[in-house]
Structure to design on (231 residues):
């Protein structure tokens, strides 16, 4: 145990909650339920293209170049357009379906619960997330994570998204923490790691796919179980 720390701030999506696998499950359901097999030869093609488009549009959302409402349907509209499906209503229905069904998925990264059981006995745990607030609440509850966390900070209510220093400062204040006794754990080098560095908070980069990078990070782990050694 590192005596230095009292507070641990976690990112949620792709750090504890397995966003990609949970999302894939719902996208497969969309492929079947909206009968996309008439126009797109495999569910996997649909999923891969959606993920590519969604990632690009999320970047725009994070930079405030796209609203939450636009993001919800535009990611489906653009995916369908790629497959030459032009429809005004369909992307909206798909967006609604996705938002309703995605947060009730419960797949977590391996060892999430074991690690949280261990850490919650030694530290105060908190969440800082850029995800949609009402959606994140459902995910936390459905996946059994809610009770591990003290303070939850959402970019929507903070008014800015990670890596903006204000959301980290707000989280520290609400938790009664200081950057000097806190550490941030997240999967995003920009939002989580650079964000933490901007407020002089220690950081752990969760990199389950061992993606290569050239950024300075304090600690890097590819499995949450490594937290048993660090903290
Ligand atoms: Mg994340």
């Amino acid at each position: 145990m590192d005596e230095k720390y009292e507070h641990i701030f976690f990112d949620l999506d792709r750090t504890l909650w397995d966003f990609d696998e949970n999302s894939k499950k719902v996208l497969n359901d969309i492929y079947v339920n909206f009968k996309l097999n008439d126009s797109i030869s495999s569910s996997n093609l649909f999923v891969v293209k959606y993920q590519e488009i969604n990632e690009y549009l999320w970047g725009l959302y994070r930079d405030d170049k796209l609203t939450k409402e636009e993001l919800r349907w535009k990611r489906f509209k653009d995916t369908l357009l790629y497959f030459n499906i032009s429809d005004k209503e369909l992307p909206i229905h798909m967006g609604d379906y996705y938002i309703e069904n995605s947060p009730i998925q419960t797949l977590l990264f391996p060892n999430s619960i074991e690690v949280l059981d261990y850490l919650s006995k030694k530290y105060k745990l908190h969440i800082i997330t850029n995800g949609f607030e009402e959606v994140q609440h459902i995910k936390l509850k459905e996946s059994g994570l809610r009770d591990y966390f003290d303070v939850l900070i959402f970019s929507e209510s903070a008014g800015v998204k990670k890596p903006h220093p204000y959301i980290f400062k707000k989280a520290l204040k609400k938790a009664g923490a200081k950057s000097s006794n806190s550490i941030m754990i997240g999967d995003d080098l920009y939002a989580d790691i650079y964000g933490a560095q901007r407020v002089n908070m220690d950081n752990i980069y969760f990199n389950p796919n061992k993606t290569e990078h050239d950024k300075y990070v304090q600690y890097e782990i590819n499995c949450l179980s490594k937290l048993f050694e660090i903290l």
Summary: Residues 11, 13-15, 186-188 surround magnesium ion (CB under 6 Å). The chain has two domains: 7-17+108-230, 19-104. Residues 7-17+108-230 form a domain with the Rossmann fold fold (CATH 3.40.50.1000).
